[in-house]
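Q: Got a minute? One more chain.
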Amino acid sequence: MPYTSTHYVQVDGVKVFYREAGQKDAPILLLLHGFPASSFQYRELIPILANKYRVIAPDMPGFGFTEVPLERAYKYTFDALATTMLAFTQALQLERYTMYVFDYGAPTGFRMAMAHPERILAIISQNGNAYEVGLGEAWIPIQRYWKEPSLENRLALQPALSLEGIRSQYIDGVPHPERVKPESYTLDTALIARPGNKDIQLDLFLDYANNVNLYPEFQRYFRQFKPPLLAIWGKFDAFFLPAGAEAFSRDDPNAISHLLEAGHFALETDVEEIACKILEFLATIIN
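A: Always. Here it is, folded:
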């Protein structure tokens, strides 16, 4: 089993934490996490994929163990996250890679792909949405905040940042919730609860509206560049519906979808199936 090491690198005024495994000269897989998680969500997937690939999973600013100095005055938007992650790839000299995106990692990664399409070998989107048909009813309170960014609507979203709110993202709709290990959502909750972090998350909730506004641009990228794309989806996800997975093929003839008997955090319950599908998918692209 390949060893996973942890590192920091200073980029864009940020001390980015990341996990890495695999041979340095192997094809690269870049894993971008989602809310409210970090690279920790890939702890079981990394060693499986690292037998054949160099796997790199950073923590985005505001998440995990990445450190953002107060004097940096970081503006927490998805544009900023993409800028920092691009700087991260440049610092590690990642010139061409397959991108695995999940949840927040999708609008971050799709921005990166549009900025440098020549770097993208393929995309794996695990519950990483780019279509309005993929937005579930769980977005209604956040959409209310987009339409009216009042203090009342902002405070109404705070329960989503509690232990119970975060735990629900892991277990709601999951056929086998007993497979979800409590350290996952417990660590997320502890890191989200750090001083000032809840406001960061509420700011990102508000800025997510700009991701939806960019959906047509993401779709234009898929039509123009047609990257090999695997949309692998927990079909019981209340946030991103299966229709979002199936929609990629409307714009990208090289897109395929696979639905899992899983929820939003599908890796917690179905890591073996996801890994097998990824390896099968990449075997057709990377010799």
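A: The chain is about 40% helix and 15% strand.
Q: Perfect, thanks.
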